[in-house]
Amino acid sequence: MLTSLQLDLFKCFRALRLPLQHFTLLTGLNASGKSTVIQTLTLLHQTAIDTNWGSSLLLDGSILSLGTLGDVVDKVNGRRQFSIGLSGVDFGCTWTFESSSADRQDISVPLSRLVLTEGPREVFRAEHNPASLLPPHPSMARAAVASLLEGLTYICAERTGPRETYPLYDLPRHRTVGPQGDRAPGKLYWHEDYEVPEHLRCKREPAPTLYKQTQAWLADFFPGVSFEVQRVPRANLVTLGIRTSPDTDHHRPQHVGFGITHVLPILVACLHARRGDIILVENPEVHLHPMGQAKIGLFLSMIASAGIQVIVETHSDHVLNGVRRAVRTSLLPPENVAIHFFQPRSAAEAQGEAQVISPSMDREGNIDHWPQGFFDQFEKDMNYFAGFGP
User: From CA 294, how far away is CA 304, in angstroms rounded?
Assistant: First the structure.
């Protein structure tokens, strides 16, 4: 598990030291740095997958496209260099990337320095343009970094909606559901008999397979809903049929709205994950009714309780309340939850506050500190109607 992320001169952060937990919730104002945390981990994953741990950080790849060095280096203090660091319980790794290009138009930024530690002991250091983002010599720390980042799943906010067909690739390319979730039906096709761990199974479904358990959990979000995945003859495609009642036939997804197809990849990714994997989800609440938003908070908390690290970016107080309910019912200990509220850097500095404020939660699900702008809009609106505010 990752325990912290460190950023220096990367995007909107001059220096960020962010604790991570089994379940980490990122929230805050728009353009305040939440997505940067998700993107940082995804860039490392992308570099590992696309270049087999090459010697440069790939900014424009198969999963994420962030432009050039000029787009990602800190606009105030950065020049042509930034650093990314990850820590776990007993390892740490810091990468420094630096370009010699004056125009900062690199779409992959060369690695200039690499430091790897195991506990307090440094096990590898390369100061001059290392040949790879991973050290050449085997070690526990090297294996931990490789395993965590290669097995990462990223699901973005802009997920694929209802489609006539979905892609069916060869089996290795369905290792994840894809950043837009469009590979979820294909993953169900290839992995339908995968046995979901017992503690992640929906209690209403005795069959342990990924296909059946996804069906059961989807029906928990959308009562009466079921699906079928079928391969298109003589084509590398599958269709996704959805019905909203046992009394109807399966419809094209276009006839049942966006909520179902936006939740499906999250369910598939989580139920197929293994202990130690990392799942990043942007805005899991998209196209969900408030009840469904609270349920997705509960569901992701259950996933985190199973030893799968979950990092969520959300603007939904219902998702937060789902997590609070999970803590109050002892599904997830409060010490395994990290909440981070992000503020725009200029506003935080003007007020003499930290750019990231991290409230704590107790065993009853109570939160000790509610900064200005932290899920307080409902209360502000009610004060308006009560005549207490503008």
Answer: 16
Tell me the per-residue pLDDT of 169-204, one tens digit each, with 9 for 90 and over: 998 888 899 999 999 999 999 999 999 999 999 999
Which residues belong to CATH 3.40.50 in the chain?
A: 1-152+278-390
What secondary structure does DSSP assign to 154-169, as a single string? EE-SS-----S-EE--
Beta strands in 90-248 (DSSP E): 91-98, 108-118, 121-126, 153-155, 166-167, 226-231, 237-243
Tell me the pLDDT tens digit for each residue of 131-176: 999 999 899 999 999 999 999 999 999 999 999 999 999 988 888 9
Per DSSP, the chain holds a count of helices (H) and strands (E) of 10, 16
Rounded distance between C-alpha atoms, residue 258 and residue 244, angstroms: 13
Closest to 111 in 3D by CA, of 86, 71, 84: 84
**For 1-152+278-390, CATH number?**
3.40.50
Structure-token match 């050449």, residue found: 136
CB proximity list for 60: less than 8 A, separation 6 or greater: 66, 67, 68, 107, 108
Distances (CA, A) of 226 to 18, 71, 214, 255, 318: 40, 43, 9, 14, 25
Closest CA to 187 of 201, 175, 199, 203: 175
Per-residue pLDDT tens for 283-293? 999 999 999 99
CA dihedral defined by 356, 360, 361, 367, rounded to 10 degrees? -70
pLDDT band at 390 (very low <50, low <70, confident <90, very high): low
**Cα atoms found within 13 Å of the Cα of residue 278, Cβ hemisphere only:** 24
Comparing C-alpha atoms, which of 375, 373, 371, 372 is closest to residue 359?
371
